[in-house]
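FAQ

Q: What does a record look like?
A: Structure on top, sequence underneath. For example:
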């Protein structure tokens, strides 16, 4: 009798442990898969672009449209190329990097690349002609730059912004990312 009781309690504890692990994995999966939707519905300060940041950071979990002229390179950094908007032989590309936290790199020409902070606000410009980082942004029209980024890669946001999750975890997403985008 005592032996059966110990076995029964052990089985119940094991099942509860497995359910807890599965629930935690589902929460993580849900937050990544629907991150663009959650970012779109979260309050954020002006000048940040949480939808694009979440699309690039979770590109392996979100819906990525397959279309002629679009290429996804998942070897190493998840990088996206848009051959449809080739300019002077240069293919626009964008990716998330994880050197000093999350940053994003956008390249559209042979001489300049743009580096964005974790909230997708412009941080610096790399000029390959001079091999220097330019932290002064006075000569660049940031609004035009963001329009260009969205013209080239806005399809990532558009494909995911209206995908509603079965279980809405907006509060959990806000707990995790509110400080980053505000």
């Amino acid at each position: 009798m005592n032996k059966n009781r110990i076995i029964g309690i052990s089985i119940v504890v094991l099942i509860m442990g497995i359910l807890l692990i599965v629930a935690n994995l589902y929460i993580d999966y849900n937050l990544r898969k629907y991150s663009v939707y959650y970012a779109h519905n979260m309050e954020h300060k002006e000048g940040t672009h949480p939808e694009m940041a979440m699309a690039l950071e979770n590109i392996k979990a979100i819906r990525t449209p397959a279309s002629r002229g679009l290429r996804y390179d998942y070897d190493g950094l998840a990088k996206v190329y848009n051959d449809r908007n080739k300019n002077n032989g240069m293919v626009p590309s964008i990716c998330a990097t994880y050197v000093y936290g999350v940053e994003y790199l956008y390249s559209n020409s042979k001489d300049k690349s743009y580096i964005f902070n974790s909230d997708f606000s412009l941080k610096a410009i790399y000029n390959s002609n001079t091999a220097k980082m330019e932290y002064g942004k006075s000569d660049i029209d940031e609004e035009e730059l963001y329009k260009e980024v969205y013209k080239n890669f806005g399809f990532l946001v558009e494909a995911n912004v209206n995908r509603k999750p079965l279980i809405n975890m907006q509060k959990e997403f806000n707990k995790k990312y509110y400080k980053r985008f505000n």
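Q: Is there anything notable about this one?
A: The chain has a mean pLDDT of 84.
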